[in-house]
Amino acid sequence: DIFGDDLFHTLFSSLFGGQRRAQPPKDIHTQIRISLEDLLNGAEREVEIKRKGMCSPCHGSGFRNGHKRKCGRCSGQGQVRVNRGFIAIAQPCPDCGGSGADASSVCHSCQGSAFGVNQARVKVKIPVGVEEGHLLRVKEAGHASSASTQRSDVIIEVKVDPHQHFEQDGLDLYYQASAPFDVVTLGGTINVPLLGGGEAQVKVPAGTQSGQALRLKKKGLPRLGDTKVGDLFVYVEVEVPKVLKATERELLVAWRELREGEVNASGVDGRSKSSQVQGMNGLDSIKKLWQKLFS
Fold first, then answer.
1. How far is CA 62 from CA 54, 98, 100, 150, 277, in A?
2. Alpha-carbon distance 257 to 275, whole Å?
3. pLDDT at residue 41, as a whole number
4. How far is it, in rounded angstroms, from Cα 23 to Cα 153?
5. Would you say 32 and 157 are in contact if contact means Cβ atoms under 8 Å apart?
6. What residues in the chain have per-residue pLDDT under 70?
7. Regarding beta strands 213-216 and 199-204, do their DSSP bridges make them parallel or antiparallel, or are they unpaired?
8. Is the dihedral of CA 269, 274, 275, 280 positive or negative?
9. Residue 71: predicted pLDDT
């Protein structure tokens, strides 16, 4: 209840006819869900709230058709005095409940309070670099009351939706990319998307292992009110072809024979006769395939 009660003030009001002190309206608390792109670039969004304001049916008068008829018992005073011996105590009128109006003239929608609950859409600016859990304040967009000429504020908690491609940890972003077998083995480059659009070329060193992270500096998220920018970490996953052409398969088999000949080498000069033959067969196969491809 935005018009809360003060226990002692209410007690003395009932005894001595004082007026009840209304409290200022309370702030409205809600949430908004935004994307990582909103964190990167900033945005303007709307939130839907329910807030107390002027009653629409009675236009804030509290009475049907805007016309108040006086209560017959208290003559519109809202109070009646009851004698307790030599003391006269003022009490709310039992017929009108203290409103001073005839019950039939009170607005059925707001029950004479002149205020009702309405749906409203409030615009809020999402600053660049805002974080999960950050509280945004929209001034004077909340409840209205008779106790204040200003509305209360709307406090909006930021929630960040998961992204389809990127994961977030603070200011840093993480992306998983596929790289062909030859690129991770011999070295090369791959292209990866950037948050907000565009691409970046990532250099893949020779011998990169599956699951290894490559770092792109200052390609992450900015920090609110600061010049610091996070990094983008690209986790490389080796792309294994499901189907090989005949020539590709022959080359890989020859490469495997050559590798096995080197790995299994032993004996005189570090190599056995059988391993030397196996290694030479692999090398000869590669030479023949090479001549076949480019002759």
1. 9, 13, 12, 20, 103
2. 10
3. 95
4. 15
5. yes
6. 1-22, 147-148, 261-295
7. unpaired
8. positive
9. 85
Length of the chain (residues): 295
* pLDDT (0 to 100) of residue 248: 81
List, in sequence order, the alpha helices (H) in the chain.
7-16, 36-41, 181-186, 246-263, 273-294
99 to each of 5, 15, 171, how far by Cα in Å? 17, 17, 57
With 0-12 CB in 10 A as exposed, 13-18 as middle and 19+ as buried, what is 54?
A: middle
State how far the Cα of 258 lies from the Cα of 252, in Å rounded to an integer.
Answer: 10
Give the residues across from 45 on adjacent strands.
124
Q: What is the pLDDT of residue 171?
A: 96
Contacts of 234 (CB under 8 A, 6+ apart): 175, 176, 177, 192, 202, 213, 214, 215, 216
pLDDT value of position 208: 94
- pLDDT for position 288: 61
